[in-house]
Design goal:
The protein is an alpha+beta fold. The chain has two domains: about 90 residues, 2-Layer Sandwich (Translation Initiation Factor IF3); about 100 residues, Protein of unknown function (DUF541), domain 2 (Alpha-Beta Plaits, 2-Layer Sandwich), CATH 3.30.70.2970. The protein has four helices and seven strands; from the N terminus they run αββαββαβαββ. It has a four-stranded antiparallel beta sheet with strand order 3-4-2-5. A three-stranded antiparallel beta sheet has the order 1-7-6, with helices on one face. α2 runs antiparallel to α3. It is elongated. It starts with a helix and ends with a strand.
Length: about 240
């Protein structure tokens, strides 16, 4: 009898506890909400370029590899300065020295020499100089190139344009879906944003000598995009 009373009391306590927890656990069902994302973009012509290039040299000794590299890179930088580039437009990005080995079959690795690398990143705001600057560097001895990337000196206005477009897209989508479901938008509960930039990254494959009077380079356009996520409360 006591056991039955104890079990009955436990069941009653569990039901009471569950009933007390229901309002909190079901709080998210107190209102109908809609979670959506919106996307906006701004398309602009780039107004700056970044060029990565340099010199790689090989020699039997480390000192000779570095000396050859220094002599060649000095000529490249002089050629860049002759194109009107200021000191702030040229920044060393890589300076390295590494041993080179041969691996004869069945034998231990053999040291064959050293490789020295010196690369710079060039920043240009006059995009008409991109091709001539690349040609000047190659003509002076640059034989190691990465890529040319285009961008914007300032993203603020482009981001604001894309931000407005993203929020409008979000509002339009929310209104359309709410109307289709027989609701209307009561209020926006939450709004978050993520921003990113996409742009053209053409590569210039540089040989030991320039093959044309001016290397052709297409700048394309820069796309600044903004994505927003919003939560809306719906009502009938």
């Amino acid at each position: 009898m006591k056991a039955a009373l104890w079990i009955g009391a436990l069941v009653a306590a569990c039901v009471a506890g569950s009933a007390a927890a229901d309002p909190a656990s079901d709080a998210r069902f107190a209102a109908t909400t809609l979670d959506l994302t919106g996307h906006g973009e701004a398309h602009l012509l780039p107004d700056m370029a970044s060029i990565d290039l340099g010199v790689t040299t090989n020699a039997p000794t480390a000192a000779e590899a570095m000396a050859r590299n220094a002599a060649a890179m000095t000529k490249v930088i002089a050629a860049l300065r002759a194109k009107g580039l200021a000191e702030r437009d040229i920044a060393t990005s890589t300076l390295g020295l590494s041993p080179q080995y041969a691996y004869p079959q069945g034998q231990a690795a053999e040291l064959t020499g050293y490789e020295a690398t010196n690369r710079v990143t060039i920043t240009l705001t006059d995009l008409t100089l991109v091709g001539p600057v690349v040609d000047a560097a190659v003509g002076a001895g640059a034989n190691d190139a990465g890529q040319i990337s285009f961008g914007l000196k300032s993203r603020a206005s482009a981001e604001n344009f894309a931000r407005l477009a993203a929020v409008k897209a979000l509002d339009d989508k929310a209104a359309t879906l709410a109307d289709a479901a027989g609701y209307h938008i009561r209020r926006m509960v939450n709004l978050t944003e993520t921003a990113s930039q996409e742009g053209p990254r053409p590569r210039v494959m540089m040989a030991m000598k320039a093959q044309a009077p001016t290397t052709p380079v297409e700048t394309g356009e820069v796309v600044v995009s903004v994505d927003v996520t919003g939560e809306f409360e719906l009502g009938h």
